[in-house]
Amino acid sequence: MGFVRVAEADRLKENKRHVVTLRYANEYQTVVLFRMDGLEEDGRVHTREYYAIESNCPHAGAPLENASLELVEDDIEDIVDVIAVCPYHAYDLSLSSGESSYGIKACTFNVEQRDEIIYIDTHDSSPWEVIAVRAVSEQFAESTTNPEPLQHVDRYITPDQEPTTLTQWATLILKTPDPELKIAYTRRASQLFKGGQIKVIGKSTPPEKPPRNQQQVDPSRAGRRGKGGSLQSRIALLHSLANIELWAIDLAWDIIARFSNASLDPVAPNSKMPMDYFSDWLQVATDEAKHFSLLRRRLEEMGSFYGALPTHGALWDSAEDTKHSLISRLSIIHLVHEARGLDVNPATIAKFRASGDLESTEVLETIHHDEITHVTAGHKWMLFCCKHSNLDPIETFRKQVKLNFSGKLRGPFNTDDRHKAGLSEGWYNDLQGEKTSTYKPTTIKSVKEEAIADALKDTDHTVKEDHITETLKHTRI
Ligand code: FES
Ligand SMILES: [Fe+2]
Ligand SMILES: [Fe+2]
């Protein structure tokens, strides 16, 4: 027995899930702490207010902070246990015993509250110390300069104007250029779907390309991402990541709308995708909106804002190349581009940590954990589609990359996180896309783009950003 102080109970009130990092000498252990309040209603009594379990699933390492919870009740509806359902392969893990019906066992920890302080039992007498308590962010970060759309979505769309199907929401969001509204609508649609207020998937035609209220420049003109050392360089990096997250929101909604009636079975051509296809991609859309909001907020905290630097829409080229087939879309967007994110994120996180920017580091870590689950979703639905069409998933993926991607898949690969998402090396090693690149740089003509191009020539970063900010102020579309 070795109870270690985690935090004051009050500090844990705002979120129901926290990740607690403990250290003793050179050893670390990480635990997810679930707070169970809200379950004591209608005479139902929970047996414990807190549960704690090791942070990674003993099967293949999924972060259990993202597990969904299910209650086990006895005959008189007392809650006798809580089951965590792993987000990767849906194994069940008892939060009391750690046991799973699949025969694996996770480590669980007793949690006690004494005098408004929460303690965790580390199972040994060594002087473990809690070094970090992080809320599992389900929170969107509001803009410091323009918080209204997030708070008042009903100002922009009244309940009687709201779409009634999930694909109508998808199309509305895809056609909404304003990032704040895109986040607000995504959040609203997610609440309605999870709350059972949207039950119909429906049919709706998504736009060919989601509009932007910021003119897009060629990727080569979008500025260097920076090495992450100076403040300006970190801003440039976060800005370029925010742009990718904004496209990622659209990509998740597009896979919902465009393939809602994907026929998988030639014998039953009207077959539709099952419900968990939609809930999985809705979760991805919600995560991407959260990611954008976190990055946009960080930019503001660092003295900049989203839109201060030029952005590009190159990611949508791959969406266009794959709009004809769900298997192509899953392969290129979710198992090539999103998996590439897993490879590069750790180095980016390390740069921010080395520069002492711990707030951005935390944001990027949150994003990275979520991104593993997005690649998992791509893998899961790729397997589903291949099974229904009697195709070998790895062979099919490799063929899709050859047909719909140009260039070699570049390493170094984050084999651990790829593996967690279901991608063994056989999927991606020695793989070369053979598609002819159709990318054509467009001529820079507009006043704004010329100003941005001029600004990018400037070697003084401070002047560069001021110049762009000033330019955008006067030429906002
Ligand atoms: S069930 Fe948790 S990682 Fe596989
Ligand atoms: Fe993301
Ligand atoms: Fe993602």
UniProtKB/TrEMBL annotation:
Q: Which UniProt keywords apply?
A: 2Fe-2S, Iron, Iron-sulfur, Metal-binding
Could you tell me which InterPro entries the record lists for this protein? DUF455, Ferritin-like_SF, Rieske_2Fe-2S, Rieske_2Fe-2S_sf, Sol_Rieske_ferrdox_dom
Organism ancestry = Eukaryota, Fungi, Dikarya, Basidiomycota, Wallemiomycotina
Q: Which PANTHER family match?
A: 3-OXOACYL-[ACYL-CARRIER-PROTEIN] SYNTHASE-LIKE PROTEIN, SI:CH73-314G15.3
Q: Signal as a keyword?
A: no
> Gene3D superfamilies, from UniProt?
Rieske [2Fe-2S] iron-sulphur domain
Task: From the Swiss-Prot or TrEMBL record, give the protein name.
Answer: Rieske domain-containing protein
User: Iron-sulfur among the record's keywords?
Assistant: yes
From the Swiss-Prot or TrEMBL record, what is one GO molecular function term?
metal ion binding
- List, for all copies, the residue spans of the domain called Rieske: 17-120
Region (Disordered) location: 200-228
Organism of origin: Wallemia ichthyophaga (strain EXF-994 / CBS 113033)
